Amino acid sequence: MSRTFLSLAVPLLLARCLAAAQASAADAPPAERPQPLAKLAAPSGTAVEFSRDGKFLLTVGGDSARVWDARTFEPVTPPLVHAKPATFVSAAISGDGRLALTAAGEEVCVWDVATGKIMSTMRHAGGVHSASFVGDGTKVLTAGEDGTAGVWDAATGERTLSLRCPQPVQSAHASPGGRRIFTTRRETNEQILRFVPWRGVGQLWDATTGKEIELNELPNGEHRAAAVNLPGGRSTRPVAFRRDGRVVAVAFAAGIAEYDTTTGKLREFFDVGEVEGTSRTIEYSPDGLWIVAATGNGFVQVWAATGRHLACPKFGRGVTSATFSADGRRVATASQGDATGVWDAHTGRRVLEVPADKDDPPTQVALSPDRTRLAVGRAGKSETTLWAVPPDGGGAVAERRAAPSYQSAHVLKGTSGKVAAFSGDGARLITAGGQRARVWDAATGQPLSEPLDHGGEIVHAGLDRDGARAYTAGGTRVRVWDMRRGRELFSVEHAGAVRSAEFSPDGGRIVTAANGEKTMRVRDAGTGEVLLSLEHPGAAYFARFTLDGSKLFTLAQGDGPEGHLGAGSALVWDARTGKELRRRVIDDWLHQDGDHWTRSAALSPDGKKAATCFFRDAVVWEIETGKTLVSMDTIDAGGGTTGLAFSPDGQQVLTLDASCANLWSTKDGELLFKLNLFGVRDAAFLPDGKHVLLTADLGNTGVYDLATGECVVEAPAGFVPNAPAIGLSPDGKRFAVSGAGQTIVWERAK
Question: What is the pTM of this model?
């Protein structure tokens, strides 16, 4: 079952999202900036909520609240104030807009919206910490300092259920149908930093019987909960029920734990990975397929409900909330920076940008159920502004295209898991893992050779055009093998670690590059005889033949010590004579360890264009003249570039960084599309040019539609690829990804 890629970039999504949209918005003249539909004065600013039918809007400011007509923006009620005024800790409006509730001090008041009068009152022996409507609004759920959570009749104020907890209850959350309740304990920020027993963090209850449902411990003994600071040095933690009530999610310091509400068993743990900061809000999409978390340090993360991590956009300042629209098609975010607004959940495009106010950032946002209005509350000004949300986000939502249908054909184990590469004719596949490699029949998955023992860790391997020869590379050595006879033809010893190796398209030559060597040599692939010696200005790290084999494209580090942040060079050679045809200096080249060098450049399939990336920019230039065609600011688009790939027709180029993949036009440098994807490693276009195979961390490996961001082919849950470990047959019939000691081969469905 395919999952829509919620590139939710900024909103949900979780890495520095939609630079193109942000840039275009920033460049727009002031007159074109959106203007609010209305400004609702006090009581307003600290909280805002639409009724489920979208007809009413509740605003809260300090010790009073008010209900407004969401279409005319006229007040429906007078200010709602308790007999003993106190700052509201909770306020809500029922789904049908008939009732509102407010909580302050020791009491909760339920108001009749039509009359503006109190209908019922509920009291706790200590202060009330949270209150909310349950289900259809006929019941109210409260949490109190007295160590109890209560369910009350909204009309009469009668308490129908009392849940006694071992500590004061900081918050209580009910499943949509009201069958389950989750309570969290009250503790100080000092306590939250210490390891505490899970049972002291929160409890799950059966709301029918009042009995506790025991929850499993977290994996790896992780007991620290994610804390959201509240006034007075108190903390709470985000909790969310899925709409069907069968699953509850709780935020912890290491991620989000998802529990089955019937058995109490841990279903999934969403690991925050390298992202620091704790979740301020978590929420399920209405269909339950996605979960979004906003963190105080500016990240928004999105996972598929299967545990597959989708994205992790980063904003300059803290994102205070991220919430889905009623139909799950839009996401609204509140941010202390410039990420407040509305986003298309399927494409990640910004639909509405609300002007930032660094002196008075929004406290909360709410999106109307019909997705046409955004309410933004600002406590400093004690006001709520209403904004019109464009229906199409400034551009039509991309239509779903017919996706190539692939199915898992083979799982290759042993001598696998590190490298995967097809022969030029696509009939054979070589895989490597540890010190050994093996050649397989790509159609049947049967081994065609005994394991090839390299004698050291293999980092690269490849086959020639018809699979007659193979090479393995690792450490300082490259070995070339005769696959028909199953023996080594020759080996090459380098002074440094091998960085790149490749057969020429006709299989007659092989070129290798190694760490610290300025001379790159082209050898006869049958004898090992040196045919060409190519002298570079610095250490040569990368080599690629053009498809016709007539030219060789290489990269070299500039003069200076290893790891030097300085100039590098891209060179084009006549592959027959060794004559240097073109040299281009690359400024501000950022040297990277590991295999990033081999992915820091790409050739277009026709051999007429090259793309090189460095610290800030990626550049597409003409091989014949060296002329720059387009320059792409990849820092503004999400981060420094770590990889490149041309589309089959050469009209587009994909740039990769740790958190996203950006599609650019090679004609004018326009950013065409952005996929926010955590831990992107490598990419290969499918022959149709409309889909790309991406390897990425946290279960994100798969084939993606570059118009919609939809993942149309998913790797198995828990599969973690290596890099480089991606192979695509030239005809696009098969692709292979290696990782976790195995290689999975997908085959186009017939």
Answer: 0.59
